[in-house]
Design goal:
Order of helices and strands: HEEEHEHE
Shape: elongated
CATH architecture of one domain: 2-Layer Sandwich
Structural class: alpha/beta
CATH topology of one domain: Nucleotidyltransferase, domain 5
Largest sheet: 5 strands, mixed
Strand order of the largest sheet: 3-2-1-4-5
Strand content: 5-15%
């Protein structure tokens, strides 16, 4: 004779506690946000010249763009030739001694590029480089 066991009530209810999982995900998110290096772009697209001797530089730098018309941009706004010295000195005070990288268009007047280099040096920049493509 067979015996069947019937239960009319549910004895065990299993639940999964996901709050520790959510805590871990939030901690990882905060870690990656804090350790990310944000690069400040110049705000204008330029066609960089090519160079065989180009090297990669630091991620943390002051980027200045010189367009083909000779206009100067930094951080998404046009600063003009007269604003280079003030902007570079202000950013050097905030960030310490970081290199200045000039992204001059291949068709930019040489005089404009030299003026930006000169103004950056007069503002206190120890390292001024020109951005190129390999």
């Amino acid at each position: 004779m067979r015996r069947f066991r019937h239960s009319t009530t549910s004895d065990t209810v299993s639940t999964v506690d996901i709050s520790p999982l959510i805590d871990v995900v939030f901690l990882l998110l905060i870690f990656f946000i804090v350790t990310t290096v944000f690069v400040k772009e110049t705000g204008v697209e330029v066609s960089k010249p090519r160079a065989a001797s180009s090297q990669d530089l630091e991620k943390q730098a002051i980027l200045i763009a010189v367009t083909s018309e000779g206009r100067v941009w930094q951080g998404g706004r046009e600063i003009g030739m007269d604003g280079v010295r003030a902007v570079v000195s202000t950013l050097l005070e905030e960030d310490g001694q970081v290199p200045v990288i000039i992204r001059a268009d291949a068709a930019a007047p040489t005089e404009s590029t030299v003026k930006v280099i000169d103004a950056s040096k007069l503002a206190g920049a120890e390292s001024v480089s020109l951005a190129t493509e390999k």
